[in-house]
Amino acid sequence: MSFIKHCIFDLDGVIVDTAKFHYLAWKRLAKELGFELKPIQNERLKGVSRVQSLEILLSIGNIKASDAEKSRMADQKNEWYVQYISSMTPKDILPGAKEFILKVRENGIKTSLGSVSKNAALILEKIAITHLFDCIVDGTRITKAKPDPQVFLISCEELAVTPSESVVFEDSIAGIQAALAGGMHSIGIGNAKILSMAERIIPDFTHVDMSILVY
Ligand code: B16
Ligand code: MG
């Protein structure tokens, strides 16, 4: 039996439901470009960087664009997204998530944020939980987005824990792939069919206790 020393939490879709705002903004951009972005297609955009998400969106719509046009589209999407998240408050934290993070900390386990979002600091500030993380790694600190494990490996290194002593909580396929590639344990949050490659899967943080951290 081994105990986890470090929990890494993804942000979008794990601590807050900003995944729905990303979807709304990408869907709005797709509509402007003349096609519909379906929820199942949107799964491919989750967890990957803004630039990669745009490339996937354009390939879904079969649309060619110059670098300047792509940059304008990404800026426009982010403008809409920032508008959507601007009204967030601590009430937007997903059920049980803050309580679980607090319990993890009470048990002497380190906590990190592992998000590829460049808006992560703004969101953490809005929901007032910045102080609950020993290490924050976001889109401004990485050169490679999920499924590359860099976003999770940085916190392991900074907190001097091994990947095998760490567990990643993720809602995206790319994020689970990143945890597997980095040698961390993985717990999928959400749909078991979509996240089938995760080691363990829970629907959300309600009714979860510390026993989930025993391997
Ligand atoms: P931004 P996470 C990711 O955050 C989202 O899941 C993904 O859909 C988004 O494209 C990415 O952040 C970049 O976000 O445009 O705000 O920089 O899930 O890693 O917390
Ligand atoms: Mg996510």
Bound molecules: 1,6-di-O-phosphono-beta-D-glucopyranose, magnesium ion
- CATH class placement of the largest domain: Alpha Beta
Give the tally of structural domains: 2
Return residue spans where pLDDT drops below 50 for at least 5 consecutive residues. Answer: none
Question: Which class do the helix and strand fractions yield?
Answer: alpha/beta
CATH architecture of the largest domain: 3-Layer(aba) Sandwich
Strand order of the largest sheet: 3-2-1-4-5-6
Report the helical percentage: 25-40%
Which superfamily, in CATH terms, is the homologous superfamily of the largest domain?
HAD superfamily/HAD-like
Please work out how many helical segments DSSP would assign: 8
What's the overall average pLDDT, rounded?
96
Query: CATH topology of the largest domain, which one?
Result: Rossmann fold
Q: How far apart lie the N and C ends?
A: 6 Å
Q: What's the number of extended β-strand segments?
A: 6
The biggest sheet amounts to: 6 strands, parallel
Q: What order do the SSEs take from the amino end to the carboxyl end, as H and E?
A: EHHHHHEHEHEHEE
Shape: globular
Strand residue percentage: 5-15%
Write down the Rg.
17 Å
Describe this protein's structure.
This protein has 215 residues and is α/β, with parallel strands linked by helices. It folds into two domains: 6-17 and 91-213, Rossmann fold (3-Layer(aba) Sandwich), CATH 3.40.50; 19-85, DNA polymerase, domain 1, CATH 1.10.150.240. It is built from eight helices and six strands; from the N terminus they run βαααααβαβαβαββ. The chain has helices at 19-33, 39-42, 50-60, 67-85, 97-106, 120-126, 150-158, 173-182; strands at residues 6-9, 110-114, 135-137, 166-170, 185-189, 200-202. A six-stranded parallel sheet has the order 3-2-1-4-5-6. It binds 1,6-di-O-phosphono-beta-D-glucopyranose (B16) and magnesium ion. Residues 10-13, 22, 45-50, 53, 78, 115-119, 139, 172 line the site of 1,6-di-O-phosphono-beta-D-glucopyranose.
